Amino acid sequence: MKILYAGPEERGRYLQEHASPGVTVQARAPQSGPSTIESMVDEYEHIPGVIDVVKWGEANGYDAVLTSCFGDPGIDAMRELVKIPVLAPAETSMHVAAMIGHSFSIVTVLDNVVRPLKKLAKLYGVESKLASIRVLGVSVMMIRTEKDRVYPKAVEACRRCIEEDGADAIVMGCGSMSFYAKEIGEEVGVPVVNPLLVSLRAAEMLVGSGLTHSKRAYPVPPKIGGYPVAFEAAGGAR
Amino acid sequence: MKILYAGPEERGRYLQEHASPGVTVQARAPQSGPSTIESMVDEYEHIPGVIDVVKWGEANGYDAVLTSCFGDPGIDAMRELVKIPVLAPAETSMHVAAMIGHSFSIVTVLDNVVRPLKKLAKLYGVESKLASIRVLGVSVMMIRTEKDRVYPKAVEACRRCIEEDGADAIVMGCGSMSFYAKEIGEEVGVPVVNPLLVSLRAAEMLVGSGLTHSKRAYPVPPKIGGYPVAFEAAGGAR
Amino acid sequence: MKILYAGPEERGRYLQEHASPGVTVQARAPQSGPSTIESMVDEYEHIPGVIDVVKWGEANGYDAVLTSCFGDPGIDAMRELVKIPVLAPAETSMHVAAMIGHSFSIVTVLDNVVRPLKKLAKLYGVESKLASIRVLGVSVMMIRTEKDRVYPKAVEACRRCIEEDGADAIVMGCGSMSFYAKEIGEEVGVPVVNPLLVSLRAAEMLVGSGLTHSKRAYPVPPKIGGYPVAFEAAGGAR
Amino acid sequence: MKILYAGPEERGRYLQEHASPGVTVQARAPQSGPSTIESMVDEYEHIPGVIDVVKWGEANGYDAVLTSCFGDPGIDAMRELVKIPVLAPAETSMHVAAMIGHSFSIVTVLDNVVRPLKKLAKLYGVESKLASIRVLGVSVMMIRTEKDRVYPKAVEACRRCIEEDGADAIVMGCGSMSFYAKEIGEEVGVPVVNPLLVSLRAAEMLVGSGLTHSKRAYPVPPKIGGYPVAFEAAGGAR
Amino acid sequence: MKILYAGPEERGRYLQEHASPGVTVQARAPQSGPSTIESMVDEYEHIPGVIDVVKWGEANGYDAVLTSCFGDPGIDAMRELVKIPVLAPAETSMHVAAMIGHSFSIVTVLDNVVRPLKKLAKLYGVESKLASIRVLGVSVMMIRTEKDRVYPKAVEACRRCIEEDGADAIVMGCGSMSFYAKEIGEEVGVPVVNPLLVSLRAAEMLVGSGLTHSKRAYPVPPKIGGYPVAFEAAGGAR
Amino acid sequence: MKILYAGPEERGRYLQEHASPGVTVQARAPQSGPSTIESMVDEYEHIPGVIDVVKWGEANGYDAVLTSCFGDPGIDAMRELVKIPVLAPAETSMHVAAMIGHSFSIVTVLDNVVRPLKKLAKLYGVESKLASIRVLGVSVMMIRTEKDRVYPKAVEACRRCIEEDGADAIVMGCGSMSFYAKEIGEEVGVPVVNPLLVSLRAAEMLVGSGLTHSKRAYPVPPKIGGYPVAFEAAGGAR
Hints:
Six copies of one chain form a homohexamer.
Chain A: E1 2-5, H1 9-18, E2 24-27, H2 40-59, E3 64-66, H3 75-81, E4 86-87, H4 89-100, E5 104-108, H5 114-123, E6 130-135, H6 140-145, H7 147-163, E7 169-172, H8 181-188, E8 192-193, H9 195-208, H10 222-225
Parallel strand pairs in A: 1-2, 1-3, 3-4, 5-6, 5-7, 7-8
């Protein structure tokens, strides 16, 4: 099984180290887009580069592609364009968190991303399981470069999700926080979902089960796949 | 009041004709993007050109901007970037339809856009009022060029929305179908929302009421507006 | 365009001053009902007088009628009786607030009206966007006569809606608080919806778009419009 | 236990015959209002007369009052005015139907009342259990006077609720259909709720359990009970 | 009317004292299962003994059976096996609480049972009316043996449900707390539902109205009642 | 990684053949319970035997246990008793189906199991993604022994889920239908989830990601783990 990660090399190496036996993980960073993703403006600028990586992955025989940004930008378009599974970290993490408890919280970087994450929970149909979203008030860059200051805040935020908001599990709501997950989980005593790792393992699950995203859900764009030849009879209700 | 329409000239002229006294409408088509929008791939390609128009509008003293595509692509990013209202046709039409009946249906072009429209209804919070979405099985281009064949199908689809799905009102779910609205409304006997016209009138309503989109909902991206200077105390729950 | 306001003269003058060019606003207060509306008992006593104003408005060539009480009492009956739009302040304000942010709060007078307002949010289908309702603990009369004491409380309540409840926008939940809206909005930095003004502008929007309330949603009462002549075939499911 | 029925004598006698041992039922018809209730206009005209009966009932030592119209008009106002339970047929029937199956349907008279009944299901919080509403297309009067023609249609409608809509139980959605309930239940093989009878029995249940409607939910109107003496501290969130 | 209570003698006597005239209540405790029920493990061990009591009740001419554990374990299986109503305390109490206010809270013993009770509220379709669940942090046994210490805590918990969570009514969320209900209700000023008593009165209501649980909802198991003889035509949608 | 399957040998061998490299799967059938599970009565009888297998699995060093019945009976109790993940087929299949499309349908055996499966979808929080449940009207035994007659019906049912109900993916709603999944998927052109296989792969995903079910969600029963030593301060709201 060959899996492509649409992000930087060092995360690709981390994924390879944590992959199941027999699974090869390769990384390929998008050639365009912003350095970090902290707004909807950033998200849309990020999409074209990732679309190229996804198409390249399918063309080069990969079995699945993992996207890297926790806002899951553009995954619907990517799934329209390829047949292999395209795994997105927020969608995967939320469903896995929903499977291991009655409710979960997300801990993330900035207030900016709270409303977009709530929207994702709604779209993915797991809104009733989302206990809360808490933010650390730090940039994505600080997550990476100032762990000493940021990590204790993350632990405290997780504790409040559990005690005050009733969360059974926590999702690290930013790709860069993936590397905090294991340590925090041991400290706070509930499962903490690492979006990077769980995307890989969920990709293995889908490929290993012979599953991919439904073309009913993500149809080939008509400009590429063609238009229906005849009128439908006035259109069935959806 | 000066309103900018992010679409083609001829629609701008139509809007000017239907504007309130004292309102000037100007059109400015995006300089990039696909000719028609019929998939999520098309939607994302459409965004950058419209962002440019929206920023240009604010810089040139317009009071509001109207986007043209019924999928409402990128409106969250646009609202992050400007302070004037950015009106989107699906969002506006759905709320107006929700105001004039207990439930509404959307009649649109292709099966491809059904799921994205359902998602929008969910995000806009009016999902419980959406009776159904029916499709005509035609391309956006045919709406414009083959009205003879398409129009009767649209009438039939609207009738089925009313009789079978219980719709109190209908939304024309494609910018190009705006021009069918008045005629169909007279034929089927329920209000039919013209997304183009209602976007203009809703823009007038917001500007006239001194309202615009909340910066809490659409905050300035931190790369532009700056990062918070200090940590929040472990993050309030949202 | 001629619009009738079913309330006192001085508010009619305020509306005329804030109307679009070419719009005439006239006021006609109900001839019966309680002086202020602070309970469901008050609401039902208020209805017959407003019904008379609405019917008078249609008979005298008005294009739309605006009701005045924020509890929206009796609007379904009024819409059954006329063909012109009957705009209600809570319904209109909630939909407009839902359009300009992801969530909104209502600030209102007394605890008594909290549950009825929650019910309205549920009926109007915008419940998922209602962040909170906060009350000032004052009578409707005090809003009008003791602004010095009431206004600072209103500002504080709005601030808590924003900071603690996550509201992106605020609705002034009482007709008499309409006159606080502009000032508070400037003070708290989010859009504050003035129900009186937004009802007028929404009426202009509907009339200008050729829309009115659906007769499917608000059918003519059979005692007036007649009964169906034949049995339905066992009744379709709704 | 003494129970007052706010409707005609002959129904009062029916209720007395079906009451538990030791329960006295008396009828007192409202002195004003329309002869039958088939629209929201009718509903509001019906309220003042019933309010008088409810107040009379409390003043004359009754333990509970039953209202008669299946649209449950004005019950919130009535509960504001008295301390004894005021039982409404739709509310009671829907909760009882929800207790005996996973879903229920309502069979009623005219299309007019479908939307109002859907609203009630939403307000009462049992919307997720409502499978469908089916109408017979007959006036309330025909229910009473043309049973030969109406009854077979009612059976057919109930069958379709069960077979096509998945209803586990049926509610007779009109006071006048109460007298069909037993016979239809035997014919279609699922429980059929008689709103008249079940209101009586639910009143006995509440009184016998020492329960009544919460004054938190239905507070005494401030014009009667007095206004709060002091400001609340900026208003708690609800 | 003869009603069987599937629990200990002394509660049976309490029920007999509080039954309507003409109603006989008998108790029959399950012959197996744990002494108290404080986890899902306990719940499943409790079921077989209660099933035996329910079947014995039907075989011996009882008109209804009341189960005793507030977690309502196994009621779906019991209803599959008999035709008489099987009343469960949580289901009954939640629907009755939903009838007498806009929202209710549950006060119960241990954190363990909070999530299972939330699930029940969801399954019974009254989730939107559940304001909160508060726990006392005591074992079921302490409820019975240490009322002096437990009772004041229960009052305080109820007060917080009312003041902080907005509950209009309270449900005693444990069979053993039934005996606190009346006293607490007088102290806190909102209706407090006694699950034991209300189950009895609801059983009287159902039997007196000629109603029982729908066999559509709780069909006879095919191993007992037989399998369908023929294939359905590819299966209707449910 | 060692995984235990709580079901028959031959399915254990199937799972071993489809496991990832390095994963050992062992089967251990419950020593008690009914031969097939087709009602809630069957489900509760099935639980004690599976609990024994689950506890045996943890005691013997397995990393996860898979249960076999698609009704997911007793999983909450099992998770209370062990620390390793206990994977249930319906819960896992529904979340995986929700990940690969916007909506999914379940195709299953008998009408009896439809309502219980709907309840599971509600409890698992994926109800908004469930398009429909269709039944074949056959016993579990026929699935295994009469594939010739049953398989074409299953294909037809899947087609109707896709065409009429709008399903993007299908879940085989019975353990015995797992072996139809691959073939049907190829025939109907949407992903068809094999609950047996996907449970295995999801177990690998959880174990490989260092995750298990939250003890907050499934706490150790107090009779085993001990009671809280002190009162909580009047109980936090949940």
